[in-house]
């Protein structure tokens, strides 16, 4: 059985994360080395943090915000991002996105801007990069901060900063995962300094908790192998366990109580060491080949299915989503043939019942993820394509 998504980390790197002697590592030095990958141009200031949630919370705390100030956010994101903004006393204004571009329409967005708008958060979804140039033009000179949430889009380190703030995520299921961590780049030096000052007061993630996560990820990686996942799926079926939901829960971050206590920590030295190694050894050629392979498949499927992000200026295919109620009904048949299609996801539409967010609701209602990743052999990809088009 081909699982919906493979973890983007090798056994060698996982073993190193578990066995490397953390006491010889210096977290501050590692943080500076990672930041230098983005700051070499001198046009931005970067730092690492435990997660994008951590960075977003830090950013809002460092901004001079008043209760009931407004923040416009792409209407589709993970629930925690909306929670953090609302928890700061901000009014979240959801912006509808185009199904092809996955970006807010600039003209429609202009109508959402008021005198209390302080920031716009644009999320790059499913690995597709939204074109933000129309939004930049719409807010030029208005004192509104443009924030890119690039949790699902990572083309490689050292990409030029085109917005005011950008977040990259390296959580468990992300491209170039370090089993956690995020990089935040900020154009304004004073704003970055304020974020760093607050960040310094946070306790550091324990090395034990990071190594425990490495052990857990090793188990997930073993289960995600073709033979092991097939056996696990059969076993779960025999006991009435929803394997899709179980795998989602296993990779979910910051669950349970004390959410803010969990995110308000600095990354461990071992996490930073793993992240630096992953970024320094990023396989740009492999990423390019994966993108070309997915683009070729998307071109063939486009005549039958709606493909979110198909009109985006760039798509690295962190996930391969299809919006189709018909395909969602056919998922059991694909699983019987060895392809684990999934509709389980961590994203949501900010207002599930809003008629003004039709595209956003469709994305979170009828989406199906295909098991397309570099480890899937060409012969199996051809077989999957034939089943999708039959």
Secondary structure elements and their pairing?
Layout: H1 11-19, H2 27-39, E1 45-49, H3 52-62, E2 70-74, E3 76-77, H4 79-87, E4 91-95, H5 106-110, E5 117-123, E6 128-129, H6 133-139, E7 145-150, E8 165-169, E9 182-186, H7 189-200, H8 207-223, H9 226-238, H10 243-251, H11 259-263, H12 269-280, H13 284-301, E10 314-315, E11 321-323, H14 325-329, H15 331-336, E12 348-349, H16 358-365, E13 367-369, H17 378-389
Parallel strand pairs: 2-4, 2-5, 5-7, 7-8
Antiparallel strand pairs: 1-9, 3-12, 6-10, 8-9, 11-13
Helix pairs in contact: 1-8, 2-12, 3-4, 3-7
Keywords:
single chain; 390 residues; alpha/beta; Aspartate Aminotransferase, domain 2; Aspartate Aminotransferase, domain 1; 2 domains; 13 strands
Provide a brief overview of the structure.
The protein has 390 residues and is an alpha/beta fold.
Mean pLDDT: 92
CATH architecture classification of the largest domain: 3-Layer(aba) Sandwich
The total strand number stands at 13
What is the CATH level 1 assignment of the largest domain? Alpha Beta
Number of domains: 2
The major sheet is characterized as: 7 strands, mixed
**Could you say which overall geometry the principal axes of the C-alpha atoms support?**
globular
* Portion of residues within helices: 40-55%
Sheet/helix structural class? alpha/beta
CATH superfamily of the largest domain: Type I PLP-dependent aspartate aminotransferase-like (Major domain)
Strand order of the largest sheet: 1-9-8-7-5-2-4
What fold name stands as the CATH topology of the largest domain? Aspartate Aminotransferase, domain 2
Supply the number of helical segments. Answer: 17
Instruction: Report the portion of residues in β strands.
Output: 5-15%
* Cα-atom radius of gyration: 21 Å
Distance between the termini: 20 Å
């Amino acid at each position: 059985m081909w699982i919906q998504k493979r973890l983007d980390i090798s056994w060698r790197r996982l073993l190193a994360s578990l066995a490397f002697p953390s006491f010889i590592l210096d977290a501050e030095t590692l943080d500076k080395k990672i930041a230098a990958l983005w700051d070499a141009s001198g046009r931005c200031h970067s730092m690492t943090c435990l997660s994008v949630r951590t960075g977003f919370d830090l950013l809002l705390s460092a901004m001079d915000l008043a209760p009931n100030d407004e923040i416009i956010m792409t209407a589709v994101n993970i629930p925690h991002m909306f929670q953090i903004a609302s928890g700061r006393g901000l009014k979240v204004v959801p912006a509808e996105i185009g199904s092809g571009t996955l970006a807010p329409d600039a003209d429609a967005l202009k109508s959402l801007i008021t005198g209390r708008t302080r920031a716009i958060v644009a999320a790059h979804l499913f690995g597709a990069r939204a074109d933000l140039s129309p939004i930049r033009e719409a807010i030029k000179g208005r004192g509104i901060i443009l924030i890119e949430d690039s949790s699902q889009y990572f083309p490689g380190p050292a990409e030029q900063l085109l917005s005011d703030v950008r977040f990259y995520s390296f959580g468990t299921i992300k491209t170039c995962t370090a089993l956690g961590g995020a990089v935040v780049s900020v154009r304004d030096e004073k704003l970055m300094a304020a974020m760093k000052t607050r960040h310094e007061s946070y306790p550091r993630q324990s090395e034990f908790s990071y190594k425990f996560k490495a052990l857990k990820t090793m188990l997930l990686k073993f289960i995600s192998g073709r033979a092991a996942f097939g056996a696990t799926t059969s076993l779960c079926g025999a006991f009435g366990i929803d394997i899709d939901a179980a795998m989602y829960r296993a990779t979910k971050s910051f669950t349970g109580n004390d959410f803010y206590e969990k995110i308000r920590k600095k990354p461990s030295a071992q996490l930073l060491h793993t992240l630096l190694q992953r970024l320094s050894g990023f396989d740009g050629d492999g990423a390019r080949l994966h993108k070309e392979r997915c683009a070729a498949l998307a071109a063939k499927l486009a005549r039958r299915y709606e493909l979110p992000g198909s009109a985006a200026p760039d798509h690295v295919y962190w996930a391969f989503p299809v919006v189709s109620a018909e395909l969602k009904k056919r998922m059991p048949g694909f699983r019987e043939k060895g392809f684990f299609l999934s509709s389980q996801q961590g994203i949501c539409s900010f207002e599930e019942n809003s008629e003004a967010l039709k595209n956003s609701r469709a994305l979170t209602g009828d989406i199906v993820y295909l098991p397309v990743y570099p480890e899937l052999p060409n012969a199996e990809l051809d077989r999957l394509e034939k089943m999708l088009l039959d």
